[in-house]
Amino acid sequence: MLGITDLPLFVGAVFLLNVTPGPDTAYIVGRSVAQGRAAGVMSSLGVSAGCCVHALATAFGLTALLAASPLAFSIIQYAGAAYLCWLGLRMIAATFRANRANLAQRAAEHPAPATAGASRARDARSMRALFMQGFLTNVLNPKVILFFLSFFPQFVDPKAGHQAAAFLVLGAIMIVMSTIWNTLVAWLAGTLTRRVSEAPRLKCWLDRVVGAAFIGLGARLALLPR
Q: What is the rounded distance in angstroms from the CA atom of residue 47 to the CA atom of residue 41?
């Protein structure tokens, strides 16, 4: 079909890749642990959207051109590393701001509660930001570029006349499977840590640990050999 070969093997390989922890899984679990199930699920959707970009780029040959350019590859590599480090530093800095805000609120005799409308608007902005962060984390990961470039062609007949369509179908299969798995991981991670996160001091330290983990992922990505 469309030049796709060994489809059952492809599905099995994608399943094994999904259940093997990687940077995307670490990012999603980190968001779920630090900010709850909704944050983890939204992050997983952002990662899936990033995979859509890679699938389209692979189908139309853009990934191969990018991988062939050392300069372009390095730009994406270091941009992705810097972005992860920035997210980690931002998360750690937010814990100190939250501590100051909690102290100020305790000192105030009558703290003004946020209105329901303002709270909903803030939550909506937060969810959009989490989606975009997951998206950029995946798109700016050169390891994902190399994965699509090296993995997908193994399951497409080089003599097929519809190679782009074959890449798109394989990409769609992988994205659906990955989205289901990542959403499940986000839900479970958020559920297991929900009660723990209700303790403000413990949640503060969890955020710092997750932020440090993001910085570690960024450093690891920066040191990725070409």
A: 10
